[in-house]
Write a structure and sequence with these properties.
By secondary structure, the chain is an all-beta fold. It is built from one helix and 32 strands. It folds into two domains: 37 residues, no CATH class; 272 residues, Kelch-type beta propeller (Neuraminidase), CATH 2.120.10.80. Helix content is 2%, strand content 41%. The radius of gyration is 20 Å and the shape is globular.
């Protein structure tokens, strides 16, 4: 039988930590985690990262993979106002949201974030708040009370609140925030809620969710004036997360629920501006989590499987460290 040394000309090296600058094809044994690893040229892969301090679902995100917020949510029963910031290595609790709630619209970064709407288990909300890196401040309310948005799009001063739900109906309503107030603009082609989104207020993307006809895979892009239907998701779903800072031509969605409450997904799909392609699965299937980052460097935080979760995973496209298994 051929051996690794016979094929490559050298034995597998053992390290106490993963090499900081591996080369494609390099294989090593990590003596701390007791696993065999390698650096491979792959489409992308998810890896575990430190967990949040508070497990939750219905939280929303902002920022990048290494400078992210996860905001509020449903904390295994109680509604939480807790905000946590991720620096690429650990989560830290920062200023609480003014009004505890979940399933909001979201936009912005760790130092300039925006949330609007949502639900506090009693009433649906119109409240909007901005974050300056330290504290949250109430700003102008959105015009239409609702929850279960198609996530959010844009920045703190140029954002879109897309779709949503006022029970029992689904909304095609889109409102734009300009840093001062909210204005209704062009409606979606398909009214829906609890989907995914990304991009900017003039180049946006909304994906999936639930409509009156059921769970949908519909994808629409926005050019600042109108919404256009494009290629559907491979797997229809609601309650997934998206790479928040992605564009309407390069995006990533992950996790979610195909309907019925029990069909939680690990599947990840990548958007290239024309079509969706299945890529690497999350290590753990999850729904109703927050997303941050880009199509090349994304973050998934919290959610439920069930139960409610504090888990964090990071996605990196291109060559990446992979762990070899017996399967």
């Amino acid at each position: 039988m051929a051996t690794y040394k016979g094929i490559e000309g050298f034995t597998i090296q053992s390290f106490s930590a993963d090499p900081p600058t591996p080369v494609i094809g390099q294989v090593w044994y990590n003596s701390t985690s007791n696993v065999l690893k390698g650096y491979a040229s792959v489409t992308g892969a998810w890896a575990s990262a430190p967990s949040m301090n508070t497990a939750r679902r219905g939280n929303c995100g902002a920022g990048s993979q290494t400078a992210a917020l996860t905001i509020a949510g449903n904390d295994a029963g109680p509604i939480t106002a807790k905000t946590e910031e991720f620096n690429g290595s650990s989560w830290t609790e920062v200023g609480d949201l003014g009004t505890a709630r979940y399933e909001m619209a979201n936009a912005g970064t760790t130092t300039a974030a925006l949330v609007a709407g949502g639900y506090n288990n009693v009433v649906q909300q119109t409240k909007a708040e901005t974050y300056n890196g330290t504290a949250w401040t109430e700003v102008a309310d959105i015009n239409s009370i609702r929850t279960k948005f198609q996530e959010g799009i844009g920045t703190q001063t140029a954002a879109l609140a897309v779709g949503g739900r006022i029970a029992p109906g689904f909304l095609d309503l889109v409102e734009e925030y300009n840093g001062t107030g909210w204005t209704a603009i062009a409606a979606l082609n398909t009214a829906r809620a609890d989907g995914m989104a990304g991009g900017s207020s003039t180049a946006g993307l909304t994906v999936g969710g639930q409509s009156a006809a059921g769970v949908t895979g519909d994808t629409e892009t926005f050019n600042g004036t109108s919404w256009t239907e494009v290629t559907n998701l491979t797997t229809t779903r609601l309650g997934a997360a998206s790479a928040f800072q992605a564009s309407n031509t390069t995006s990533l969605i992950y996790g979610g629920d195909t309907g019925g409450g029990a069909r939680v997904q690990a599947e990840t799909e990548e958007w290239n501006g024309t079509a969706w392609t299945e890529v690497g699965d999350l290590a753990t299937a999850v729904k109703h989590q927050s997303g941050s980052g880009t199509a090349g460097a994304a973050l998934s935080a919290g959610g439920e499987n069930p139960p409610f979760s504090a888990q964090t995973e990071v996605w990196n496209a291109g060559p990446t460290t992979v762990t070899f298994t017996s399967s």
